[in-house]
């Protein structure tokens, strides 16, 4: 992202294949919101989507996907991902007004069991450095109305930027993917949080990592491919949402 342009994301919709990818992602998510089960029963399907997203996000960071039946989750990465997932709804208003505060809270939840007890003061605090501070501030400006880019682009950029920046030094992947979900909800792309693109990231983890590495280069090709990739993952996440809704309909 560049702080020079009035709209930091203003030219991303002009990248090859991005308008088509954005449109396909929007259409796929809109369709699953029209599923009969999701018209009234969406709180149940959204809750299942949230858990699946948390498990996949944890696995991407080396955590477990297993939730013991009736038992306590002991894997620190999975426990953190589940706590973050539970916080997304309550944090939505904070995210829309003070995204850096929301990111700090998500890091506290994600990394509570990852940071040694003697270093608990690190929780919720970005690593020092002018570049980290500047890029986080720019990210906050984008989230709070500093761009007219469509939701799929903003979600991809927020996700990719936090992966690249790794501002906290622990739990950053879980926080980045949760921030992407928050953008999807807040932007109206996926207002009920039904889609599960995290499952698509996990199923093709090498493609996910390669696309993220491309975004980190900051080149037009790398950023464009990351946005297109995230849009494809959102389409796949909508298919996952449909499978959740179909299963719920069958009782």
From TrEMBL:
It comes from the Bacteria. PROSITE patterns: FIDO. Residues 98-229 form the Fido domain. InterPro entries: Fido, Fido-like_dom_sf. This is Fido domain-containing protein.
């Amino acid at each position: 992202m560049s702080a020079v342009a009035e709209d930091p994301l203003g030219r991303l919709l002009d990248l090859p294949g991005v308008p088509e990818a954005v449109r396909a992602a929007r259409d796929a998510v809109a369709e699953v919101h029209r599923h009969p089960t999701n018209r009234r029963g969406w709180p149940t399907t959204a809750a299942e989507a949230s858990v699946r997203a948390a498990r996949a996000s944890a696995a991407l960071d080396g955590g477990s996907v297993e939730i013991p039946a009736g038992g306590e989750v002991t894997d620190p990465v999975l426990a953190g991902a589940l706590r973050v997932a539970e916080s997304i709804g309550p944090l939505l208003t904070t995210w829309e007004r003070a995204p850096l505060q929301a990111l700090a809270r998500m890091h506290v939840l994600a990394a509570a069991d990852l940071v040694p007890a003697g270093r608990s003061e690190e929780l919720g605090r970005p690593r020092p450095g002018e570049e980290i501070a500047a890029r986080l501030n720019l990210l906050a400006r984008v989230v709070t109305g500093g761009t007219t880019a469509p939701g799929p682009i903003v979600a991809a950029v927020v996700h990719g930027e936090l992966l690249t920046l790794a501002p906290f030094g622990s739990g950053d992947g879980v926080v980045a993917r949760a921030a992407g979900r928050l953008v999807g909800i807040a932007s109206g792309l996926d207002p009920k949080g039904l889609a599960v693109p995290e499952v698509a990231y996990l199923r093709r983890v090498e493609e996910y990592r390669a696309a993220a590495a491309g975004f980190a280069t900051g080149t037009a090709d790398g950023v464009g491919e990351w946005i297109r990739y995230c849009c494809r993952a959102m389409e796949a996440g909508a298919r996952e949402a449909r499978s959740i809704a179909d299963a719920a309909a069958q009782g």
